[in-house]
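During the reporting period the student researcher (J.K.) took over the structure-prediction task from the postdoctoral fellow and processed the backlog of single-chain submissions. One of the processed entries is reproduced below for the supervisory committee.
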Amino acid sequence: MILQFVKTNIMSKKLKNFLTVFAIMISLLLIICIQNISSQLVSNVENQTKEYDLIVGKVGSNVGLALNSIFFYGVPEGNIDIAYLEKLENNKYVKKIVPIGMGDSYRGYKIIGTTPDYFSGDGFKLKEGKYIENECEVVLGSTIAKKGNMKIGDTFKSTHGLGGASDEEHEHEHEDFTYVVVGILEPTNTPNDTVLFTTIETLWHAHGLHHDEDEEHEHDEHDEEHEEEHEEEHEEEKISTHGKGGKEEEEHNSTELITALMIRAKDMSSQTMLYNDLSNDSNIQVIIPNQALREFLNYIKIFTVVITLIASVSVIISIVMLFITMLTSSIEQRKDTSILRALGANRKTIFIINICQMLILAIVGVILGCILSHIVIAIIGKYIVTNYGLYMSGLVFLKEEFIAMLITIVLALLAGIIPAMMVYKTDATKYLK
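J.K. obtained the following structure tokens:
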């Protein structure tokens, strides 16, 4: 009987109740989406910075260097001298050092020049093929292999630059360098899924630059002619300075091809010694990745707090709307309540009917908000995974969102007590005259 009366009361005010449920749903959606997405982004960023203790690169933004080197996001500030790699390779404090080179792309996806040591971390596993060993060999991230329908043995030519492959950019294709796919990575749920890897030497030679001067004499005259053409083509547009105005320095040619050095120190004291030593060089900047990205994470957290506060105010407004709806309903339904009392329903039953009505509306709004929020997270997550390689799932549930749902329901119940008490105290005979 109670549920039947509750249903009748809810259906009698369809529009008001729908708007109340909708307001609760949207408010919860904002809270859950912001909290969940922020938490997953922060977790991904922190996990990505664990592999390397230091990053050495061109003087510029600390956050920019970290995002560019670890997440391959944005355009590099510039490049550093190959001499730093040679110097640090035999440094007693260094456990692992990996060079990163950028400048070319394929269909808008960045081609990263590096060494086989890059794949020595625990996060890498080949789906098929092998890792890069020789020039013009390429290992594909899982997303690129899937979207491009590429397989082992496929060949392609790269585009000079880090942007998309427009008709204009096709004019800058490296016609003399044909890449061949030798390996495909298993999904790593990291930015490594959205890039192509080749040897650092491949990028050097693609732009007519060489690590050793003697290496130039090993090429025949035909190769030298091609190199001269490449040098003229890229005289003002070096490998990692697209969009930066083509900053130039009178350095050895190969310096233009080291975007960053990723360093793993032997221990904490070694990290400190390396950092202090490299920080004295004004031509480079050295950063500790997790510290550099704290600034970025702080922006995310501040944004999360602001949006959460706004959404919380929206929840309170929704509860107030629900309270007003129930209050007006209780006033309008005094005669119906009196009839129920006359038919034998006691005060406790009337009180429960009104509380249940409030509770059902709140629960429906909360459940719909939870379901819709995770659908939105899944859609956003798919976009982020595809374009940035950062894993985000709509199936991740945080304790904070359950707390928010519980608080919303409790507030709804508290807001429903006053209208319920008004009905509870209704004089059954007063409205039957």
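The committee noted the following: The chain has two domains: 2-44+296-424, 54-287.
J.K. will present the remaining backlog at the next meeting.
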